[in-house]
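Example (one chain per record):
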Amino acid sequence: MLPLLRRVLPTSAIILTLHRFQNEETNTVGHSAAALRKNLAYLRRQKYRILSLPELFDRVAEGTVESEPSVAFTVDDGYSDFHSVAAPIFAEFDCPVTVFLPTGFLDGQLWLWWDVLEYAFSATSHRSTAISLSSGERRYTWREDAERLACARDLAELLERVSDDERKSVLQLVPAALEVAISDVPPPAFAPMSWAEVRKDARRGVTFGPHTVSHPILSQLSADQVREEIATSWRRVREETDAAIPVFAIPNGQPHAFGSRDVLLASDAGMRGCVSTIPGYLRRGKYSANATCLPRFPYQDDMPHFVQLVTGLEGAKSVLRDAVARLRTKSPTLQELSVSRRTARRQTGAGIRGQTRDHPKVSFIIAWSPDIPLSAILVRDLHSACARSGRELVIVTQRSERLLGTSRVQIITAGADADLGSMRTRVPGHARAPVVGHHTGPFQ
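Predicted structure:
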């Protein structure tokens, strides 16, 4: 089954990102060492190309990113459990990995700010608290440890969307309100790698990139502040290791946390590119060689989800979900449509049942991709469904020859970028025809 998926799905490159690793000695919750070993063994067994991040950026620049199935690994934040748990496993499988370092954390200047919240909520003897934010008061109550963690994470998510000054103020107020002392040095569960460990892991083949000094939310900073965070972090990484690479990991990395300004400022600071945490596959032509911000998927421990990611199946599922949403909001292009055979049958039937008196004779246009033939069986099914309500079936396709021999169906051949709204106008009387689509082209 797995080799079949690799033959059917488009060749893709993917960047995976990890953060924490399970460590019983420090009671750290994170990715399983056993699962990581198993998943890396799968990639080697299936002959995936595991690329370093510089190699991946080379392929993006050269336009060869889809030449073979490939995977790159990254780890954010530079916690000590990377060195003690994950680094030996990546080395065991000769697997390149890049770790992004918030340098103030490694320099002993600060805790990572969300850890302050987690520690304060976990260590307090209180059972409730109220936090005043500019958006209003937020009340929290808890009984179990899981509820404490949920409260800390909820507040951390809220602080990603407030000003930098407010975030820093709340981070001072919360421990005081919960009567928890925050030491200068984080306890082992929240500790960073040391620079000596960075250099030791560099000898294992690990590379390191800047991740700011203090892990702020860039969208909440001025341009000068962003400049300083990137430049200082990059300088410190280069000072401490020869394995520094000019790729910047955007803190948080979600759309609300950064913008094009920050990507350009990273480029001005000497970065070859950036990585976000917005999920996505790397496709030829989608990213330029300059000022590029590449997507990353969160790594999954369990094998079924991991395989879906690296084979591209997760991308196919995502396109399917997006296509259904697009069908409701605009007239999509052939390159944008994606529904399964079963969905095509269901949507066509639902469309027939839902037609109004305004256009009772409207046809159903089925947009199909060149990559998979539209089966004659499916065409007959759809035609029958239309015929039962006295309507026609129209196919808009890029490969009409695949449908030769299909009778009683009007076929229109269109280019990959054809807008189906305009294509409908070429079928007299059917300008308002609904669309059921299927697409297996590039998943972007």
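Caption: The chain has a mean pLDDT of 78.
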